[in-house]
Amino acid sequence: MTSSFRVALIGHAFMGRAHAHAWRTAHRFFPLPLEPELVVVVGRDEDRARAAAANFGAAEWSTDWRAVIARDDIDIVDICAPGDQHAEIAIAALAAGKHVLCEKPLARTVTEAQEMADAAQGALASGVRAMCGFSYRRTPALALARRFVDDGRLGRIRHVRAQYLQDWLSSPEAPLTWRLDKEKAGSGALGDIGAHSIDTAQWLTGQTIDEVSAVLTTFVTERPVLAQQEGLGGRAAEGAPRGPVTVDDAVAFTARLSGGAIGVFEATRFALGRRNANRIEINGDRGSIAFDFERMNELEYFDGDDPDDAQGFRRIQVTDPSHPYVDRWWPTGHGLGYEHAFTHQVVDLVTAIAEGRQPEPSFANALQVQRVLEAVERSAADRSRLTPTSA
Ligand code: SOE
């Protein structure tokens, strides 16, 4: 009989829901060495935590994460709380001998991320593992792109072009949520979605971002104070006072990568009409790939070895059983959705832990992303750029 792997989920909003779904689903579709059991849901508000636990099918709820971490019957602590709680909870959970899955970005600052990575390193000796939830790595089309890079189909990589475009803050009336508060989130579009692009680019190319030059901006500096969080946004009361937005709304930066490639990155929540366009294009000297999450079951691939009269990008439908993760789902041509990457994340995490391997992205990988985030912020603040002069 498969033994169970008992999960404490901390946070039950958008990300908590995505994770809860994954914990409940993974073993029903994939053969797992341990069977996840969502035991307890933790939240700050008693009624909402109770309702979330009932909704997710967890037996218990709590408002006290410290008490939950102290329990003997919890194997993993899954942190889906806002960023200001990541470091404290993760470090305490690792010290208590629990495995940890922590949402991205790992922390608010490099200092916090370093402390978390140190704690994860220290816990390794007792077989305790930590992983950061850069879930898009587990989108089948991106996992296929990684396979192509590893197989050398792209050859030597020259360019990375990554954009993460959303529009949920386009209206100045969208209320102030925790994602707009530097104290809670660390940064804005940069850390929330730009971090995904940074992780994806580094993971796909096997190169680290070693140099950046950036501009950051905040288009709407004050917003109505939030009355009720709903999904990513929420509702403000009629005539609510406005409070300050303390993070960036949009960022653009260029980058130099360790293997000689150059990169162009953009992240914004003001790209009206682009709802979740997490895009990346990579050009090598043998081939190219292009991906857009708004068409997440497709990967564009250009093969430079094709005969001249047949050259062009082909659109691969990533729904074949030969594609990563796909064989456990639906017949060819029947696609997957946003939630599946989280399910695959649980599959990979639980399998690695059961086999005594380090699941990736590790806290050390996520610390590297955090260093890039900080470098981007410093570069933007630095203002060491030239203003075009008239001839
Ligand atoms: C909000 O921009 C957000 O929910 C991110 O926080 C997630 O990481 C991303 O998957 C979708 O957008």
UniProtKB/TrEMBL annotation:
It holds the Pfam family GFO_IDH_MocA_C3. GO terms for molecular function: nucleotide binding; oxidoreductase activity. Gene3D superfamilies: Dihydrodipicolinate Reductase, domain 2, NAD(P)-binding Rossmann-like Domain. Residues 144-289 form the GFO/IDH/MocA-like oxidoreductase domain. Keywords: NAD, Oxidoreductase. Residues 5-121 form the Gfo/Idh/MocA-like oxidoreductase N-terminal domain. This is Gfo/Idh/MocA family oxidoreductase.
